[in-house]
Amino acid sequence: MTQASYSHIFEPLDLGFTQIRNRVLMGSMHTGLEEEKGGFDKLAAFYEERAKGGVGLIVTGGISPNMRGRLAPFGSEMSKPWHVAKHRKVTERVHQHGAKICMQILHAGRYSYHPFSLAPSAIKAPINPFKPKAMSDGQIKTTIRHYARAARLAQKAGYDGVEIMGSEGYLINQFLCPRTNQRTDDWGGSFENRMRFALDIVNAVRAKVGANFIIVFRLSMLDLVEDGHTLDEVLQLGKALEKAGVSIINTGIGWHEARVPTIVTSVPRAAFSWITERVRRELTVPVVAVNRINTPEIAESILSSGQADMVSMARPLLADPEFVNKAQRQQADKINTCIACNQACLDHVFENKRASCLVNPRACFETELVVKPAQQKKRIAVVGAGPAGLAFACTAAERGHQVDLYDKASEIGGQFNYAKQIPGKEEFYETIRYFGERLKDTGVNVKLGQAQSADGLVAGNYDEIVMATGVVPRRLDLPGIELPHVLGYLDVLRDHKPVGEKVAVIGAGGIGFDVSEYLTTDKSLTVAEQEWSERWGIDKDYQQRGGLKPQQPEPSARQVWLLQRKETKVGKGLGKTSGWVHRAELKSKNVNMWNGVSYKRVVENGIEIERDGETMVLEVDNVVICAGQVPMRDLQQQLVDAGQSVHLIGGADVAAELDAKRAVRQGTELAAAL
User: Fold this and answer.
1) Which fold would CATH assign to domain 486-521+556-627?
2) CA dist 33 → 29, 277, 462 (Å)
């Protein structure tokens, strides 16, 4: 990363009645702590770290104004006076460090995952089994009052303002769009009627909280669903919100049911700042750009070019709570960059688990995963410089231990060095860069290109030995497996052996998908925003409702069959928020994704399989094996027999589908405990 002054990031934002210290807004993200017993104490520590880290304005995860609007049956709401006290814990801790904080008011509407949901019209969401009831006129007016009540309670709890969630396909967004509003009364039909609900909420909130209270409105600028907004409607609503007294307009991109990716790692950085810029031209209140802004350079570019007045980052501040301070200290190269993998944050939230972060397992565990100076300093050897070994080595050295890190490879990173080559996963370079900087800062003694023996480690007189040696590909017991056209995934990704025009990939887990993507993509679009937008059918001319036009698939010259034994849908085990994107990518490249396949034998012209009771030979140039891994533990028993204290972490411990999330957490937790 190049260093810069980032002068626009650190310019205060004057709202007249109050000032925000810089242009960084921590975007709303539900953590799951909101519903845990004692969760608000943990939530206070979570937000305090980000406030201490330099953020200007924090927006909390969505809090419902009433019971029917909850995201889930026991979801958080702000509706009773006794709800105030627990929120005050959060606001007091944030204010100690000079940041401001707004509570997001979110009514889920038809996205409410319970049988009491309400919506403008009784239309079921494609991502929810529960069909909502259409709201009566009385229920609409009561809900408006509930928004105002929630805002007043938030004010009593010490919040500096509220964000009214009007995007992402939640209730207000549902009123705004003909896709979900088919009413014929005063709340439906014309856009003037459809936007009444949003404006009445803002007016009711402003009347309840007075002039000196921040109101952020999250405006859906690009719905990315059929029958969404037109650009004229977005601009009309933005101007009306401005007149109604909102302080800031935040950008919303895409509904949760949209079939266009908006935040996964293959989305180009700042891919949607163009629409924020387009709307900002028509407004006078500050406007916030969102989505895939994960470096100070990107943030500064958006602000300096006039695309937005603030930048919103949520996941990047999970990854590194010190993001803002590091940028201000000219230490952008030391930022633990968000790789937009979603594995520990959004995937967890959608599974009703506590959110965290793959590259920062302390996120949302600040009070539990505590890294303190070691009382007894030890000499520790770590074998393996993949994600688990790096996380352990850096954390242990940070605590004061003397750490020697060995790897037979010539570079750190382990399996991340293969992942970073996959089109759309270039962000993995950033994690390797971050760990390289952290190794230097913590004083780890890095010894690359050195394979270790048990005798050598014993001779080192270490107090502890940590085996982070990773995995080796599992060998298939299949006749013909030794034929020359059979390759392993390391042959393809590490050794770059030539691969023919017709390929069978055995194993449809994460690695099988990665290899298939690698083999069928000539050029990654992660850094080519315009081409990426064309590929996914984003109408930047905004001629159609929702900003959609036909997608432009990229068929591949290479023909690939992605095969799995299981009868389940191919890719079912991938992440909830990103798996559909990977499937769509491969489908667009005409990859054949076959389940229920039995492998009979490899033959000279391909591979013999059985599917649906039929035996056939797939005539292919190469067979690539992606059928799992086994732990690499060659030295463990020898070391134990020699009386050494040995710990297994990462793939050396459990060689399930390559799991960097578990590896980094396991390495960090062991280092914090030793």
Assistant:
1) FAD/NAD(P)-binding domain (3.50.50)
2) 11, 34, 40
**Start-end of CATH 3.50.50.60 domains in the chain:** 486-521+556-627
* 462-481 pLDDT per residue, tens: 999 999 999 989 889 999 99
Backbone angles phi, psi at 193, to 5 degrees: -70, -40
Which of these is catalytic: 6, 170, 462, 518? 170
Q: In the chain, list all ranges with CATH 3.20.20.70.
A: 13-350
Q: Are strands 57-63 and 464-467 parallel, antiparallel or unpaired?
A: unpaired
Provide the 10 A C-beta neighbour count for residue 373.
9
- Record the tokens describing residue 313, joined without a space: 């980052």
Alpha-carbon distance 602 to 597, whole Å? 14
* Residue pLDDT, tens place only, 397-422: 999 999 999 999 999 999 899 888 89
164-184 CB burial, b ≥16 within 10 A, e <16: bbbbbbbbbbbbbbbbbbebe
List, as one string, the DSSP characters of 360-409.
Answer: -TTTT-TTTS-----SS--EEEEE--SHHHHHHHHHHHHTT-EEEEEESS
pLDDT digits (tens, 9 = 90+) for 609-653: 999 999 999 999 999 999 988 888 889 999 999 999 999 999 989
Position 657 scores a pLDDT of 59
Q: Which of 16-20, 111-115, 129-133, 350-354 has the lowest mean pLDDT?
A: 350-354
> Hey, how many other C-beta atoms are within 10 angstroms of the C-beta on 651?
29
**CATH number, domain 379-472+633-673, options 3.40.50.720, 3.30.9.10, 3.90.380.10, 3.50.50.60:** 3.40.50.720
d(C-alpha 403, C-alpha 560), whole Å: 45
Residue that the structure tokens 């900002």 belong to: 280
Q: Which residue has the tokens 């930022």?
A: 335
CA distances 667 to 55, 430, 442, 652, Å, are 28, 19, 15, 12
Beta bridge partners of 472: 630
Tell me the C-alpha distance between 105 and 392, whole Å: 39
Both tokens assigned to 56: 């200007």
Decide: 403 and 445 in contact? Cβ < 8 Å: yes
pLDDT digits 0-9 by tens, 206-224 = 999 999 999 999 999 999 9
Please state, in angstroms and rounded to a whole number, the distance separating the CA atoms of residues 95 and 103.
14
In whole angstroms, give the CA distance from residue 155 to residue 88.
Answer: 10
Are residues 171 and 108 in contact, defined by beta-carbon separation less than 8 angstroms?
Answer: yes
Cβ neighbours for 196, distance < 8 A, ≥ 6 positions apart? 175, 186, 187
Q: Which amino acid is at 4?
A: A
Helical pair 137-156 and 84-95, crossing angle rounded to 10 deg = 50
- The first and second tokens of residue 281, run together, are 């031209």
pLDDT score, position 658: 62
> Residue 2 — very low, low, confident or very high, per pLDDT cuts 50/70/90?
very low
Question: Averaged over 163-167, what is the pLDDT?
Answer: 98
* Euclidean distance between CA atoms 502 and 481, whole angstroms: 17
Active site residue 170: yes
Q: How many CB atoms lie within 10 A of CB 265?
A: 21
CATH topology of domain 13-350: TIM Barrel (3.20.20)
**What residues have CB less than 8 Å from 626, skipping those under 6 apart?**
489, 505, 506, 507, 508, 509, 511, 512, 515
What is the pTM (predicted TM-score) of this model? 0.95
CA–CA distance from 324 to each of 13, 336, 356 (Å)? Answer: 15, 11, 19
DSSP reduced 3-state for 601: strand
Residue range(s) of every CATH 3.40.50.720 domain in the chain: 379-472+633-673
β-strands 19-20, 118-119: how paired?
unpaired
Please give the single-letter amino acid code of residue 503. V
Which residues sit opposite 214 in a β-bridge? Answer: 161
